[in-house]
Amino acid sequence: MNTLSNNWFAEGxxxxxxxKYTLLAYLVEVNSHFHHNRLYPQLGDxxxxxxxxxxxxxxxxxxxxNFPHRLSSASFEELKLTYERMVSDDKVxxxxxxxxxxxxxxxxxxxxxxxxIYEFVEENFTINxxxxxxxxxxxxxxxxxxxxxxxxxxxxxxxxxxxxxxxxYRGIQTQYISxxxxxxxxxxxxxxxxxxxxxxGHTNPAVFSIETPLTFPLQETLLxxxxxxxxxxISSGLKN
Length: 240
What we know:
This protein is α+β, with helices and mostly antiparallel strands.
């Protein structure tokens, strides 16, 4: 994958043309994946870089503080180093601002394409609980079936809660368990019974089926969006 470093726009030679082609080469690869309905990890990476540029744009002070300094003089007697900023409000800053402005416009176009695919996939998901649900449903099994309808992929999931100084977040971890051929025997309730037999410690785990008529790539699109959709589905139930 053609990746960008966290501060790609301010590293090395600060040249608009050079950074422009660096960005365009990155976006060509990202868009190629989107055109084949492969969203991840490209979409997550693109969102990170877009937000990173927005953060730098909002704070000029932050922008300047992220630049290195050049040693201009040293006083060995006082053990004091005096640094001179490599950049100030001059051509370098103007060049970077031009790079950021251009990059945000180009990234926004790709972001909209990725978000449209994401929303389309999400709208075509159907989530249902399988059997009786336990009081705690933040861990259990996710049964994912796409439009091919040849098999049901089973994932064990666990939703974690964490927070920073501003907000609380929910994340999900999944582990592939097995696949069941899709037929009249392997119904969702029967798959749940089979899982109960294999995991004797779980008397009644939370099991959710997620179906979609789409045949998009499983690992790059369907599974990542199914994970996020399940978190929102369970979180909305916790609020009610």
